[in-house]
Each structure stands twice: as C-alpha cells, then as structure tokens.
Specification:
single chain; 596 residues; alpha/beta; five-stranded mixed sheet; three-stranded antiparallel sheet; 24 helices; 8 strands
Length: 596
C-alpha cells in the first residue's frame, strides 16, 4: 500500500513542524506494519559512471563520511541520480519530501535517501527502489554484506538522523567501531583461515622488506587500516612477529645453504659502510656461478661492527659466517675488499691463516685513479671555487630564489646545482656539468647581489674554460663505469677491455686540450697502467681477467693485446685445457690467483 501525496491537506502541510513530522512518520510506520504484504522489489538503476575525483583523498567532511560508510549524501553523483535528487529537493537545497525517521529503523545507518522513491547503499553504492518499507533494504544488507539484525540491534539509538550535521569526530569514531578491538559493534564476515594466513604473511613481508619495526602492529593508525579492510582479522603481537621472522629467516637460510652447494668456488666480498648515525656495518656477500651456469650474488650477513675491531676481526668473522652456511675454506677463490686500506690491513692475515687471496674492488681502484688525476693544483683551485658557489646558493635563500626565477624565464627549471662528495668522483662531474649549464644565470645573480660578490668568488674565465675541457674526459670515465655496472658486464671478462678502452679514449681527448688537462689525463693513465699492469706482459698472461676476456666470445679477438701476446696467451690456455681434460693438475696455482 502506498501513501498518497494528499494524505494531508495543504494547510496541514504548511503547519507541520519538525516535531509534527516525527508524529506523522510514526503513523506511516504503523500503516506500513499493517500492510506487510506489500513488499518492494529491489531494482538496479543504471547510472552513468561517476566522475573521477581530482584529489586522491577526501577533502570535505561529507567526502570523509562517505569513506567511512556514514549516512552523508554523496557529493559526486551521476547525472541521473543528480536529476532525481534535484527533482525531490526545493530551490534552497532542502528536501520537500517526507521520509521515515531514521531513529525508528537502524537500517538507515547504511543507506542514503535519494528523493521519494530511491535509496542508495553506503557500502556498495547500489541504488534500490523505496516505497516506505525497509524490508528490501534489510535483506540487501544480509544477502550482499552479511550485516544481520544482530548488528542493527546493537547500533546506538542516539545517532544523528541528519547526515549534514555529522562532525569529523563522529566519522573517525565510526571507523574505529569497525576495527577488531571494537568487533562487538561490527559483525562482518569472519576472515577465513587461508585469507588470514595470507594477510599475516603480507604484514610480515612488509616489515622485513621496508625495514619497519615490529612495533608497527601496535600503532593506532595501522590498526585502524587493517580493521577497516578486514574487521575480523586480529593483528599479531611483536613477540609473535619476532618468532615468525626468525622462522622465515631459518627457512630462507636453509634454501640458501643448498643453493651455495651448487657452486664449485665462491668469491667472498667484505664491504664496510656507514649508516646515518655514523655506525659502521659489515656486509658479507658471495658471488659465484651456480649449477645452471648462472651468475649469482647472495648476501650472507650484515652486522654492526666497532671501528676498532672492524679490521682485526675480519678473518674470524668471515670464517664464522662461511661455517654457518656450510662452506669450507677451500671453496673460497678469493676475498674482495671494498677499499685498498682494508686490503692492505687484512690480506696478509687472510693469506697466512686461511689461505685466501685478497683482491681490491675495481670500482674503488678506478676511483683512486681519477682522484690522482684531479689532484692537479689548477684543477683543485677551480673545483674549490665551484664548491663555494654551490654552497652559497644552497645556504642563501634570496640568491636561490633569484636563480630559480631566472631559470623559469629560460625554461630550465629542472636543472639544479649539485655539490660533489669526496667519496664519489662521479658527483664531481655532475657538479661541473650543473655549473656549466647554469653559468649565465649564476653570473647574473652574483652580479645583482652585492652580498654574493663579497661572500663568494666567481670562477675566472680560464677556470670556466678548464671545467669545460675537463667534463669530456670525466664523462668518458663515467660512461665506462656505467658499462661495468650493467648486468651483462659486471663479470671480470669485461674489465680489461674496458680499462684499455679508457686509456685509449682519454689519450685521444687530451691531444686537443690545454696543458692542465693533459696533465690530468697523463696522471689517470699512469695510475690505470700501474694498477692493472697493462704494460707488463707477464702480469697480463697471469691475470684471470685477461683469461676471462679471452674465453668471453665478445672479446675473443683481444684487440687490446699485441699479436705476439695474443698468440702466447692462446697457447697457454690450450695447454691448461689439455691438462685439465687429462685429469692432471693445473699448470700453476698462481695462474688462477688474481693479482692484488
């Protein structure tokens, strides 16, 4: 039975107040109870796609309330819904229709009324037809969302009926009612055991992948998030997570132990590094070729060490870690050090006690070669002035603002000044390139700011020219470094061709430059030749890097060697392979030992 619109006379409609509306609605409810046979049907209304919000998070109280399934009216309705709402609303935005008092039925906590004939579910946004009966609305909650009468009966009776008056505090409160700690107020579908296990594993993976503390599960915000997404899921305690984390570590460790057994020999890398609080850490890593002839790199351990014990206990620490993973001393081909200082401090001990040969990282040796080239006096003066300019713009806000405005005028806002660091020579070329790109803007700002001219000294013309000539040489070294960093080139077979390529390329570049740049290039070439023994033919024949390059099909022509040396190397490798297949001992154990 439907209530006619002329149920009240015109005069009665005008005299109806907010209190009388409630009495009138009580009459409607009583009439609805007597008309139990009239059951409204659930209708799916086709609505156009909702417009995409420009912001990724709620901006207003109404938007926030919709996120937490409150009864606020949605602000981003489709055209059809908007026309329906405008049709049932007055010109002042107030609704002219009379509707059931929400305090009489708890179902209205999950629906928003759209005019006289439609309601919208706040959970799934489905629109249902409404004929002054909440039966269909209640069945929809039970069938689609498993929200039953027990939940509806437990909701508070003092909730505000008009959603426009819902405050942000009430919105957050309703969200908290959906968390596991307030589960008595939110009866959702129980989380199945397989799904709970998956969520638990994902939480654990989030902790060790992103380095979160175990106490993150006790954070209020994280608990609200998990409670909203999966209300019946109970987060584990930090103690439980710690136990799970150790179990995961032991499982992965067992797999790694079996994987390491597939390698005939390994290279152990010991790398010392500093964290933000200036704490020293040691990372022990292995590189090897597995049973499927694939290059593998595995981290065995990362532990904090004391600076006074970092060098003296290196051998014992390496031996302890290798033993823990079931590796013997004989499986170690050599030990790779990240600095020449560590190599000199530990190589003799590792050789005498454990029989391990030490080798320095090629990237660090290349850094030492470049550093020797940049120690030319004129270059150091130019780089010092360049650092002072960059430091001035980093510390002076007015100068930075003026520089940014000039960069906007020439459409170079993406360019930024870079300060170099002594430990990374690549930052030196980045600093020089940034200064050269912003040269005219920097000079203009320094001229406009009298304070800048007194605080910082601008580069002279010959210094600008020096940096301009230095950049191509440094860029060649940077390209070579990028080549060695590529996955297909980080094996030792790519090292010697790359080093010879650097020596040849920068030598050609120095022919057309000033005397200062020639000195820089000569210093770099001298360091490269000395550290890798390029001019020593006997040392080249004994080098595993040269043998690896010969066996690599990409470099089998060995163009960086003389014809006579290539012929001698070819004979030596044939002899070695012949003895190997005849089950005889290798030619010499020193042949396979890298030179330090």
């Amino acid at each position: 039975m439907f209530l006619p619109l002329d149920f009240l006379t015109k005069n009665e409609m005008e005299d109806v107040s907010s209190k009388r509306v409630s009495e009138f609605l009580q009459k409607c409810v009583k009439l609805e109870d007597h008309e139990g046979d009239a059951q409204p049907k659930e209708e799916i209304i086709e609505v156009q796609t909702l417009p995409v919000l420009t912001s990724s998070y709620p901006q207003t109280v109404q938007e926030i309330s919709m996120v937490f399934n409150t009864c606020a009216m949605p602000a981003n309705l489709g055209p059809c819904t908007r026309r329906r709402r405008e049709k049932s609303s007055g010109h002042d935005g107030t609704s002219t229709s009379l509707y059931v008092d929400r305090r009489k039925s708890k179902v209205w906590n999950y629906y928003t009324k759209l005019g006289d004939a439609y309601v919208e579910c706040n959970v799934c946004k489905k629109q249902l037809s409404f004929h002054n009966s909440t039966t269909t609305m209640r069945e929809h909650l039970v069938r689609k969302h498993s929200i039953r009468d027990t939940l509806l009966s437990q909701l508070k009776d003092d909730q505000v009926s008009d959603p426009d008056y819902v405050a942000q505090e009430n919105v957050i409160k309703r969200a908290r009612q959906m968390t596991p700690e307030n589960n008595s107020q939110y009866h959702a579908v129980p989380c199945t055991e397989p799904r709970a296990d998956v969520i638990l594993e994902l939480v654990l993976e989030m902790i060790f992948r992103d380095l979160h503390p175990l106490s993150v599960v006790k954070d209020k915000g994280f608990g609200l998030l998990i409670g909203y997404l999966e209300p019946s899921f109970i987060l584990p305690s930090p103690v439980q997570l710690s136990s799970m984390l150790w179990h995961r570590y032991n499982v992965v460790k067992q797999h790694l132990e079996h994987y390491l057994q597939t390698a005939q020999s390994i290279v152990v890398c010991a790398e010392f590094w500093l964290s933000q609080p200036s704490q020293t850490y040691l990372t022990i890593m292995t590189n090897f070729i597995d049973g499927e002839w694939r290059r593998a790199r595995c981290i065995l351990e990362t532990q904090q060490v004391h600076e006074n014990k970092a060098e003296s206990s290196l051998g014992d620490r390496l031996y302890s870690v290798l033993t823990d993973f079931g590796l013997s001393n004989k499986s170690v081909f050599c030990v790779m050090h990240d600095s020449l200082q560590d190599l000199e401090a530990n190589s003799s001990q590792l050789k005498c006690i454990y029989g391990w040969t030490s080798l320095c990282c090629a990237a660090h040796l290349l850094h030492l070669c470049v550093k020797a080239g940049l120690e030319v006096e004129q270059v150091q003066e130019a780089l010092g002035t360049a650092r002072s300019i960059v430091c001035y713009f980093q510390q002076d806000a007015k100068a930075t603002c003026s520089l940014n405005s000039k960069l906007e005028a020439i459409n170079k806002t993406k360019l930024k000044l870079v300060m170099d660091t002594g430990a990374r020579w690549i930052t030196t070329i980045e600093m020089c390139e940034s200064l050269l790109d912003l040269k005219w803007a920097i000079m203009s700002v320094l001229e406009e700011h009298p304070k800048g001219a007194t605080v910082v000294q601008n580069l002279a013309d010959h210094q600008w020219k020096l940096l301009q000539d230095l950049v191509p040489v440094m860029r060649t070294l940077k390209i070579a470094t990028s080549f060695l960093r590529e996955e297909q080139n980080f094996s030792i077979s790519s090292l010697m061709p790359c080093i010879h390529g650097i020596v040849t390329a920068i030598g050609q570049q120095a022919e057309e430059t000033s005397g200062v740049i020639k000195t820089v290039v000569n210093n770099i070439r001298s360091e490269l030749t000395q550290r890798w023994g390029i001019l020593d033919e006997e040392k080249l024949l004994e080098s595993p890097a040269v043998v690896a390059s010969f066996l690599d099909p990409r470099f089998k022509e060995m163009r960086f060697l003389s014809p006579s040396l290539r012929s001698e190397l070819h004979k030596k490798i044939k002899s070695m392979l012949s003895q190997f297949f005849n089950h005889q001992s290798p030619v010499s154990t020193q042949f396979w030992v890298p030179n330090s």
